[in-house]
Amino acid sequence: MKKVFKPAVAAAAVSLALIAPQTFAADQFFPIPSYRVGAYGANGQAFYGGFIDYLNYVNLKEKGVNGVNLTWEECETEYNNAKGVECYERLKGKAKESAGPIHTMSTGISYALIDKSAQDKLPLAMMGYGRTDAVDGSVFPYAFPLVTTYQMQASAIVKFIKDKNGGNLAGKKIVYLYHDSAYGKEAIIAMEAEASLNKFTLVQIPVAHPGNEQNAQWLKIRQEKPDYVVFWGWGVMNQTALKAAQKVGFPRDKMIGSWWTGSEEDVIPAGDAAKGYMAATWNVAGKQVPVIADIEKVVYGAGKGNLQDKGKIGTVLYNRGVSAAVLSVEAIRKGQEKYGKGKPLNGEQMRWALENLNITEARLKQVGATDLLPEIKTSCDNHEGSGKVKIQQWDGAKWVPVSGWIEGNKALIHPLFQASAKQYAKEKGITPRDCSKEK
Amino acid sequence: MEFFFEVLIGGLLSGVMYALVALGFVLIYKASGVFNFAQGAMVYLAALSVVGIMEWGAPLWLAVILAFAIMTAFGIGTEKFVLRKLVNQPPIALFMATIGLTFFIEGLAPMIFGSDPRALDIGIVDEPIPYILDNWNMVISKFDLIAAGVAAVLVTVLALFFQYTRIGRALRAVADDHQAALSIGIPLQHIWAIVWGVAGFVALVAGMMWGARNGVQFALTFTALKALPVLILGGFTSVPGAIVGGLIIGASEKLAEIYIPPVMQDLFGGNFGGIEGWFPYVLALLFLLVRPEGLFGEKHIDRV
Amino acid sequence: MLYREAGQFKTTYAADQQLFPIRQDRIGLIALLAVAFLGVPMFASEYWFSAILIPFLIFSLAALGLNILTGYAGQLSLGTAAFMAVGAYAAYNFQLRVEGIPILVSFICAGLTAAGVGILFGLPSLRIKGFYLAVATLAAQFFIVWCLTKFPWLSNNSSSGVISAHNIEILGYAFNTPRDKYLLVLAIVVLLALAAKNMVRSTTGRAWMAVRDMDVAASVIGIRLMRTKLLAFAVSSFYCGVAGALYAYCYLGSVEPDGFSLDMSFRILFMVIIGGVGSILGSFLGAAFILLLPIFLDILLPFFAGLFGLPFSSATVSHIQIMVFGALIMFFLIVEPHGLARLWQIAKEKLRLWPFPH
Fold first, then answer.
1. Residues A113 and A29 in one domain
2. I want to staple B230 with a disulfide (CB 3.0 to 4.6 A). Which of A315, A413, B245, C119 is the partner?
3. Any stretches that span the bilayer, and where are they (chain C) (predicted)?
4. Is residue A125 included in any domain, yes or no?
5. Is B79 at the interface with chain A, CB within 8 A?
């Protein structure tokens, strides 16, 4: 008999843990479907470490947002779509009263959550990944591809190259080397549009997942002799590409990657081969950013740091996690202005806040987050809010910004989103909101 | 034409890298009939041990020796705690056990040594050889050539080991027939422990080569996927088969990646690159239709 | 005492040949179905529906499909997820391109499409056996996923290759809530499971088992190998295809080809082997085990870490979860290589005598 009961007791304990409300009414709860193991675990550790450290920082430094304590619960998704959905459903139950924006840091998971989150009225933040046509908030009220999207990024990278070449790209050749998945394919449409606008030749070369072998692709690049390689990799594909570029003697300072190819985790394993390589980002690296230094002092000083390895503080992805948290907290402030100071926001209120963000340079300076984010102003028909990136370069030891904020060609790219969102609305039978009526 | 040869040679050299991983599979399958899916994870564990120990302050040579010790201990442990208890079970159960082992390693290794991708510097730069580049305008990597040399040495050593040492003969006997080997007094379990140790050593070599090439990180476990088509092409039980299979797969996959997508593009429109993921498998599959036991595999005779 | 066949006389052939010849089994099954159809919808929360029950049923169906192929016909396959992908994308395209097609017909067509693809990739099984075949099925895994990424027509020219499932409407009733979807999936899975149960004891099923046990011997006694093996591939892929369509339509909502990864194929194979090779019930038990285990670990480990004040970081907990998952799989294989279904069988034997020792 005893044997039979053990699992039953465990099950009861588990279901209790599932049901028991862990948040108090005055807490702002963040559901965090994070990942720290598997092929991309190192990236997740840095990002979510930064995210949670900042939430802790706000709690320690100013006792929460206007007195509202920030709480959160993590769930390991392993960067796997099905597990991500399970995590979301599990965390959802606790996010009824109050819900911060959900950051999944996975394009696949955010795709799977788009419909669900809209149904559950929980805002889904996709900072630099996910479904990019959600920029059109009239069709996707609860999805926010905040700061900037793959397409705008591609456009900004092209602009950066153009500026380097005296404003003229006609007759140049650019290779677009990409991870052959939803992530890599998103930017093609923008690259093609830019190519026909700026009259450069575009050569697209896909790399099969996981991308740990790129000899053939780089020999092809050597044969094509492009002026630049724009590079959309993820995980091991990044180091392999840098090494392979070295192998065929392609200059690394003619390679410009997306923001998921430009972190320490991506270049350090490639050793010297990465020197000179450039990548886009919306947040700079380093501890010279005041808020990062302060987090180290306040949060780690109090022994509440989330990272085991303090060396990750100030890395690109750590700072990106902080930037995501800064943005989320700023949204909470904005929401509290409307719905009452000192009260937590539920999903619907959070959604309004994210849609009415206005983070200025002055405000960023106030919170010590200058250069962690560009200025952001969102609205119903623009869930992106910025579209700006910086280009940074790896000098062999650290990432150094080599440009100011560069904005992608909005007039060229945003209509693409609207067209795609319209198609989605038609397929799904969604009636878009009328943005002119939203305040 | 120059380009063709460049791709061909690059492919052959990549193939050697695949063969390095495939060798580990062959060794274990040959001696115990276990299709050890954990070989990829073992490659990861080995490489991670090396960089992890180096991070604790040990020099490269010491780290390699310690990593070898870890791999051997791990192999013996696997034999003792898992495989020995699964003797006489259907092959699929053993196969699944090795997948369980894969998960175990994938959790264990980064927990001990950290999951950050790291560089492994073994003192060879992955750059084109200037002489060939200047005279023939071809890119041949120094690193790949050395890797090929390492593989050649490894195969020769293994072949000699199997052919001429006492243990090697015992191994072959066990591979031929477990029961017959037992009945003439060959200690089966020692032999298996040794095989797992040797496979660990091969994983270490493969891990260091791949790690130096792409960085030491979780993705090293994916190297197994590159090794599987090599394995079916060369035969599960043949050491030279792994090398020949590797060469064929490497070369054909690179040539296919370069020359097939443009043809398909003409036919269907659109971009058809990235066929490397499946091409080796389909090639191996087609090959198997002609020779179901692989190039050098042992012919299997069915008896009712 | 409770579970006794004595006294249940069969007086007609029909009674002797029915699907569940023992009365207690029938009662148990009816009770189980009543709970599943009536009890569960009344009490389960949304979390249970959309995070546990629906994926459990869908993966059970996929595992069932694989079990037909591997457990009954003896052909090891590592390409299950790819056949699910075929099902998902086929259902999407039938819905999209055939005007006014009922969704259930789309699901059936999706299954049939997957069956066709399955036959194609089953052809090598006529020549290749064992692990060679397993690795060869990897060709299906990678090739199919690649095709779905490369032919934009298949995903209605979506720039990312991701498809979003249509709304489900049957006879004017919209299946929107997780509970509705659960009931739909449950009905389909129950039907197909009963069909499978029936099939494996028919001539076809017996032929499969003969081939599994020794195909040379089977061909000697007059079983046509080609037909039998290909039929196994077709039926198995049909099940996987339907499971894939349900996966897209009732579970995730939008899917990308890369989501149907090798990892998923392995997961389904795990379910079959942990559950019990060659057992319909085993597919369900295995799916439950493999799906629930990580969730249990996920909740229990941090709980215990907190209880004993262990200084585990989030990363360490995640790593330990994976380790425990792997270790438990090895443990189960060692303790009961024939799977959970075998445990159930042993339990039944015991029940037959209980409460008496003999």
1. yes
2. B245
3. 27-44, 50-69, 76-94, 100-123, 130-151, 182-200, 230-252, 264-282, 289-310, 316-335
4. yes
5. no
Give the CA distances from residue C350 to residues A7, A113, C32, in Å, rounded to whole numbers and listed in that order: 20, 46, 21
Low-confidence ranges of chain A (pLDDT < 70): 1-25, 439
Chains that touch C (3 or more CB pairs under 8 A): A, B
Q: How far apart are CA A99 and CA A89, in angstroms?
A: 13
- A84 lies in the same domain as A127: yes
Cβ atoms < 10 Å from Cβ of B279: 24
The tally of domains found in chain B comes to: 1
Using CA coordinates, name the residue in chain B closest to A308: B114
Q: Where are the domains of chain C?
A: 44-353
Q: By the CB < 8 Å criterion, does A108 face chain C?
A: yes
Closest partner CB to C316 (pick from B95, B111, B270)? B111
ipTM for this model: 0.87
How far apart, in Å, are the Cα atoms of C80 and each of B228, C84, C86, C309?
A: 18, 6, 10, 42
User: How would residue B40 be classed by pLDDT, with cut points 50, 70 and 90?
Assistant: very high
Q: Is C269 on the interface with B (CB under 8 A)?
A: yes
Minimum-distance CB partner of B292 among C132, C134, C214: C132
Is the CB of A142 inside 8 Å of chain C's CB atoms?
no
Mean pLDDT in residue range C16-39: 85
Task: Show the domain range for B14.
Answer: 2-290
Q: Quote the minimal CA–CA distance from C299 to chain B in Å.
A: 17
- Are A79 and A218 in the same domain? no
Q: Give the closest residue to A285 by CA, choosing from A267, A304, A307, A302.
A: A267
A116 lies in the same domain as A228: no
Of B3, B107, B217, the CB nearest to A269: B217
Confidence class for position B303, pLDDT limits 50, 70, 90: low
Which chain B residues are Cβ-neighbours of C266 within 8 angstroms? 99
Q: What is the pLDDT of residue B8?
A: 92
Size of interface A-C (CB pairs under 8 A): 125
Decide: C284 and C275 in contact? Cβ < 8 Å.
yes
* Domain C44-353 grouped into CATH 1.10.3470: yes
